[in-house]
Amino acid sequence: MSQENKNDRSYLAIIALSVVLLVMALTIYAISQNGSNTADTITMSGYAEEKIVPDTASLSIGVVVQADTAKDASDQNAALMSAVVAELKALGLEDREIQTSYVSVYPVYNYDREQTITGYSASNSVQVTTTKIGNLSQIIDSSTAAGANQIGSISFSVSDDRQEQLREDLMNEAIADASSKANALAGSLDLKVTGVQTASISENGNSRVYYAVAEEAMDAAAGSVSTPIEPGESTVSMSVQVTYYIG
Question: What are the angstrom distances between the C-alpha of 135 and each of 104, 114, 138, 232?
Answer without folding.
Answer: 29, 49, 5, 15
